[in-house]
Design goal:
Number of domains: 3
Shape: elongated
Helix content: 25-40%
Largest sheet: 4 strands, mixed
Distance between the termini: 56 Å
Length: 266
């Protein structure tokens, strides 16, 4: 981090703090600070390299609300996510391992933020924060919980029941099967969710494989037949069976109603 600020850095920080700005982008400073485009670009480069501001994308930077006391500044993870999503005009929801941890399914704290969104796919780094961004169709976004963070940010998490469904739907990305089955069983017993809620979310946001696996699970858990039939009506009879646990050999009892090979061990 820069320990001594030059004239331009001092003017920059005074300007953004006076205006209460949290972001600046290319062209914002040429007028107020009377900089040429080259001078502005060099100022951004120096301040980013010195740890005084953080690049969100080329030409867009997050700035601290006040000068940090020692060490490089990195924004709050939620501020960084909201800034990136707002810049992309994206709708998002935090999902996967972050949601598993939030709802107490997994006590491991993820080293990155996972988010479904309708604009960006791939890995992004903002300051010290790593994001795994999963682009999905806008129809697959929904069933969220709005959260106000300690830092004052409003963020969106997948709801509890949506998180459980996604643990089955996106098992290969999140490495969440067969653990997700136990999470669902426990939540059904404790009434944190109901079979009706799980089926409703699965029908809206799941795919056929997810419907088959969740149908088989709820059948084993003695869910009401009226609930099971809502899933069954969306399925067609098939001779192509899928494994209950995708990572295990496809050997076991055939559950023809759901098109599942029950290959659970033990």
């Amino acid at each position: 981090m820069k320990t001594r600020l030059g004239k331009q850095e001092t003017q920059f920080l005074a300007y953004v703090q006076m205006r209460k700005l949290r972001t600046v982008q290319t062209g914002d400073l040429t007028g107020p600070l009377k900089l040429t485009p080259d001078q502005e670009r060099e100022l951004f480069r120096r301040m980013a390299r010195g740890g005084l501001i953080v690049r969100v994308r080329p030409g867009l930077y997050l700035v601290p609300s006040k000068l940090p006391l020692g060490g490089s500044w990195s924004p709050d993870e939620y501020l960084a996510l909201n800034t990136l999503m707002a810049d992309q005009r994206a709708t998002y929801q935090i999902c996967g391992p972050n949601a598993f941890n939030r709802y107490g399914f997994d006590d491991q704290i993820p080293a990155r933020i996972y988010a479904y969104n309708n604009r960006i796919s791939g890995e992004r780094t903002i300051g010290l924060i790593i994001f795994t961004l999963i682009e999905v169709a806008v129809e697959r976004l929904g069933a969220t919980e709005k959260i106000k963070t300690a830092s004052g940010e409003t963020v969106y998490y997948s709801s509890r029941v949506r998180t459980l469904m996604d643990a089955v739907y996106d098992w290969s990305r999140f490495n969440s099967l067969p653990r997700a089955y136990d999470w669902i069983r426990k939540d059904l017993v404790t009434r944190n969710i109901t079979a009706e809620q799980l089926v409703s979310v699965t029908l809206r946001y799941g795919n056929l494989a997810t419907m088959r696996r969740i149908g088989a699970l709820l059948d084993k858990e003695k869910a009401p037949e009226s609930v099971l039939k809502k899933l069954e009506r969306k399925l067609t009879p098939t001779a192509s069976l899928i494994p209950w646990i995708p990572t295990l050999p496809k050997r076991g009892k055939a559950l023809k109603r759901w098109g599942i090979v029950w290959n659970e061990q033990g």
